[in-house]
Amino acid sequence: MLLRHLVEFRRPNDADGEDSRPYSRIRNVRWQLNLNSEGQLRRLVPLRASGERPTKTGLPILVPNAGRTSGIAPALGADDAQYVLGWADDKAKPERVAQAHESFVDLSRRWLREHPDDTTARALVAFYDRRELPQPPDDEKWSSRDLVVISVGGRRATEQDTLWTLWEAVVQERKSGASADGSGQRGLCLVCGQPDQPLLDRIPQSLPKALVPRADQEVALLSANKRIHTYDFNEGLAGSPICVSCGQAAVANLSAILSEQRFTFTYPRQRTRLAWWVSNGANSETIAMLDRKPEEISEYLHSLVTGRKRRRPDDRLTFCSATLSGNVARLVVHHWLEMPLTKAEDNVDAWFNDHQILARGQEVPNAYPIWMLVRCSGQWLPDKSERGGRYIELWDKAADRPDDLAQLLLHSGLRGGTLPPHLLAHAVRRIRTDLRIDGPRAALLRVVLTRHPQRTGRGPTAVLDEEQDNPAYLYGRLFAVLESLQRTAYRQSEQPNATFFHRYFAGAVANPRIALVQGCQLYPAWLKKLDSAAGDDSSNPISRQNAERAGRAAGRYRARVRELKDRLTGPVAPLHDTESQSWFILGYFHQQAHDIRMAKTGKAPEIQTDDLPTDEHDTNEGNHEQ
Asked: At what angle do helices 578-600 and 422-434 cross, to 10 degrees?
């Protein structure tokens, strides 16, 4: 199924162009051999990319490429210097270089025989007949594997249509074991289902290792070059017959998918890469939202709720995704997903609904992209910036992030499945260690709790849940109220060096008893300060206004603390499991976000929130670190 969908893949709104040349790849070319129309050497030009050192130069040019093992297999019009010019460096074997060069010349002569009217092929053969090959330069670094492209009369040979016609035939002959007269193995192709097709002995091209995580070499899409690799101990692809055109299309299309950011989800230091596409050249804005900026996601979700945008995908469209990695030169497919596009988009909408959360300082719940949820799982480094710190970059080894977190979140978002409980343990540990809880971290806790494989009862909501009687959630809410009371009772200049939060939060996550008992003992003293401020009968209008606010605040805190204590049916107990600890953190975060929103909307202006942390910068900070 994977190969069939790869063969049928078409880029959205894509037109045929040079990048659709058969058996080709864009590679950095180091040299250009300039000839005139008579085949006379004009100049050997080093191709340098601007701003790069001479040892790392080269211009990206589309050249013939079909993968090459230890055997001699020349390309056409562009190849290594040992093939085109016969250059042998200290690491090369002169005898083998001579054979490689001779095979390149023979292939060039075949080009002229089959296309005698092509002026480029005629000039190239004339050049080799003169036997006036340029020697390696003394003032430039070079190697036998430097890529050389040939140009005749100012036009590169790789721009000639006849070159690509012959090159396609040559590759098919090599990979199918056929000869130039068309003989070779033929049969039924398992991919396209067509009978009497020329069958491949091995896949004609490889994937660049840069496109596949953990690959050490260029990667073969399908490989069976040892008898032990096949079920029936046949060599090559005899047990998996694939025709030449399907093999070429599958590799070329997978390379195109992996080369474009819009078709992939990939993150530094993650072990796999997820590639996705939609059948019939269609696209999906909903799927792409998994990796967009938070403000774009919010606008998209708002447009769905208000009816300004409706998803109307064709029921016949299919969503496909493959999670890939490399093992030396082999491709490892970890997950393959195929479903109707409507189902995939419904799953993504449900994913946003399951993790969106009201961040502190925001008016409506926010949803976050995958990259932000991955970033917030790493270590937080405090600093003196406006936000008070930053998360360690995704590529940093010291970030302490799960290696497979991104793919776990992606698969859950696309399939609608559960998430492993160990993510809660990691998130809780980082929150306690960093003393940092913000919108993305709260969203991560919420979605893992909601999609817990052993969840019982109702999951956490996006905003404060006044009806939730989970004791751990109530502990967290009470902790947040006591912290807010301390902040409100003292002016900014009077705040203690170690606040209630910094002194007790890390321990309270696992055992809230000590913190809540201590807070309830200090609670009368904090209220007394508010009562004292409320008793100010000064004639100053501002002082009277502050006194009224202090009185209302004292009343609100008394009512809220009494309410939460009355709802606790037993003594405060330790929280031994990560689920309960996560509920405590969410209760604390929900209560804080609720209080800040009430204060900003004027419904509780007497509660002091100026020095409470907010998440207003979380939705705008950072870009996707590909």
From this structure: 60
CA atoms of 23 and 17, how far apart (whole Å): 14
**What is the pLDDT, as a whole number, of residue 620?**
41
350: left (phi > 0), else alpha (psi -120 to 50), else beta? alpha
Q: Is 306 exposed, middle or buried (0-12, 13-18, 19+ CB in 10 A)?
A: exposed
What letter would DSSP give residue 52?
A: S
The strand pairing partners of 43, in sequence order, are 34
Helix/strand number for the chain, H first, E second = 18, 16
Q: What would the two tokens of residue 8 be?
A: 């049928």
Q: Quote the CA–CA distance of 290 and 311 in Å, as a whole number.
A: 16
Lowest mean pLDDT segment, chosen from 26-35, 259-268, 508-517, 616-625: 616-625
Q: Please give the model's pTM, rounded to 2 decimal places.
A: 0.79
CB within 8 A of 80, min separation 6: which ones?
A: 100, 144, 145, 146, 147, 148
pLDDT digits (tens, 9 = 90+) for 380-434: 999 888 888 999 998 888 888 988 899 999 999 999 999 999 999 999 999 999 9
Q: Which amino acid is at 571?
A: P
* Intra-chain end-to-end CA distance of the chain, in Å: 29
Query: From CA 309, how far away is CA 346, in angstroms rounded?
Result: 14
Neighbours of 409 (CB within 10 A): 25
* Contacts (Cβ under 8 Å, ≥6 apart) of 427: 377, 441, 444, 445, 448, 582
pLDDT band (50, 70, 90) for residue 49? low
Q: How many residues does the chain have?
A: 626
The DSSP secondary-structure symbol of 492 reads G
**CA distances from residue 600 to 309, 347, 357, 363, 550 in whole angstroms, order as listed:** 30, 34, 18, 9, 17
Residue at token pair 């296309």: 115
pLDDT tens for each residue of 566-620? 999 889 999 999 999 999 999 999 999 999 998 887 777 666 655 555 665 454 4
Q: What is the DSSP string of 381-445?
A: EE-SSTTSEEEPPTT-GGG---TTHHHHHHHHHHH-----THHHHHHHHHHHHHT---HHHHHHH
In which band, very low, low, confident or very high, does the pLDDT at 112 lie, cut at 50, 70 and 90?
A: very high
